[in-house]
Write a structure and sequence with these properties.
Structural class: alpha/beta
Strand content: 15-25%
CATH architecture of the largest domain: 2-Layer Sandwich
Number of domains: 3
Strand order of the largest sheet: 6-5-4-7-11
CATH class of the largest domain: Alpha Beta
Shape: globular
Radius of gyration: 22 Å
Length: 388
């Protein structure tokens, strides 16, 4: 049940609401902030003054309004150069780290290999070393915390990786361990959910109330932005579209189900069916794929999009992973099949590429941290923004 709010918690929520509105509508004037947020002009004046003093936002010059007479308004934008979050993206065999501004811009990055089944504690040590190197390089005045995007089933509330088959991990308290090592808050979520949050908060789809980020790589998952919040489900594995059955009594999946969509649409399957090595770019692999391989991929990708739309009915589906890289070649045949199989839909399905290309995983991890620590997206309430 939603609890009532005292004055302090209401102030925190208002502060984060103003910040988030400025992030998503850069150059906005104070009077427009009041209109959009529903806060009084006096409240907006007080909050923006504190945020400017704390170097969370900055004035960006005068803006004019069509038909307006008199003094121009002052636009507000997110400040840079003071507050940062660290980002960690855990993939199979690779860990990427970065340092991001409040608007998600990456100012430094580093990448390292992971073992096939890495030891969790050694992985934390490895991540700490990578982060220490880029922090020393940038020397951020204020590090707010760390956002981590990881594959597998993640308990967001406890920052625990419940199951990560690609690492052989179970019940790993990664967030707690990394927080102890870094001495700052750590926010952990499934990487596909981080990607969806990045598209909503920081990308080209900020106006979408219902958005699904569909990641198709070595694994397959969906992150769901549902009318104001990330949808996780009761046990944290909502969006596991890769484990929906598309071939009854089909091949056995690692999850013990048969005929999972991930089996037929993963990058590993594409490479195996084409006899391609890891060194060959996925774009080249797809370009040289046989007609039969392409036909099957088109069919399964159309199935994935149809299933996502039937389950979630989003305004837009944003693509990531290997499918995003080859989408210009896949788009027409996939959308033609979608149209044939969905003749009753009232409007065409909108499917687009990610706003961030190959950086989506790392920016998604940054969004996980920024969402909870700065913009009030994640937990219903949070601590006050630090002031220095």
């Amino acid at each position: 049940m939603k609890q009532g709010q005292n004055i302090a918690s209401a102030h925190r929520l208002n502060q984060r609401l103003v910040l988030r509105t400025i992030l998503m509508r850069r150059g906005i004037a104070r009077q427009n902030l009041a209109q959009i947020t529903g806060l009084t002009p006096a409240t907006i004046t007080n909050i923006t003054a504190r945020l400017i003093t704390g170097k969370w936002i900055a004035e960006e010059g005068q803006i004019s309004h069509p038909g307006a007479v008199g003094r121009r308004s002052i636009g507000l934008g997110i400040a840079s150069g003071t507050h940062y979050v660290a980002a960690v993206h855990l993939q199979r065999r690779v860990v990427s780290v970065g340092l991001a501004e409040l608007d998600g811009s990456l100012v430094a990055t580093a990448v390292d290999d992971l073992e096939a089944e890495p030891d969790p504690r050694r992985t934390v040590d490895q991540v700490q070393r990578l982060l220490a190197a880029i922090i020393d390089q940038v020397q951020p005045p204020h590090l707010l915390g760390v956002g981590v995007g990881a594959s597998g089933i993640v308990d967001y509330d406890t920052a625990t990786i419940q199951i990560a088959p690609s690492y052989g991990w179970a019940n790993v308290a990664l967030g707690e361990w990394l927080a102890e090592a870094m001495k700052v808050p750590v926010v952990l979520d499934n990487n596909a959910r981080g990607m969806a949050l990045a598209e909503h908060l920081l990308g080209s789809h900020r106006d979408a109330r219902w958005l699904v980020f569909l990641y198709v790589g070595r694994g397959m998952a969906a992150g769901i932005w549902a009318d104001g919040r990330i949808y996780r489900g009761i046990h944290g594995f909502a969006g596991e579209v890769g484990h929906t059955t598309v071939v009854p009594e089909g091949d056995l999946c690692w999850c013990k189900n048969r005929g999972c969509l991930e089996i037929y649409l993963s990058e590993d399957t594409l490479r195996r069916n084409c006899g391609a090595s890891e060194q060959t770019s996925v774009t080249e692999v797809f370009r040289n794929a046989s007609t039969a391989v392409r036909r099957e991929l088109v069919h399964q990708m159309a199935t994935a999009l149809i299933n996502v739309n039937h389950n979630h009915n989003p305004e837009v589906i944003v693509l990531g992973g290997w499918v995003d890289k080859v989408w210009p070649m896949l788009r027409d045949p996939v959308m033609e099949e979608v149209a044939k199989r969905t003749a009753y839909w009232p409007r065409p399905l909108r499917v687009v590429s990610s706003s961030f290309g190959e950086n989506i995983g790392l920016i998604g991890a940054a969004a996980i941290g920024l969402g909870q620590l700065v913009y009030g997206v994640g937990k219903d309430d949070g601590e006050p923004l630090p002031s220095w």
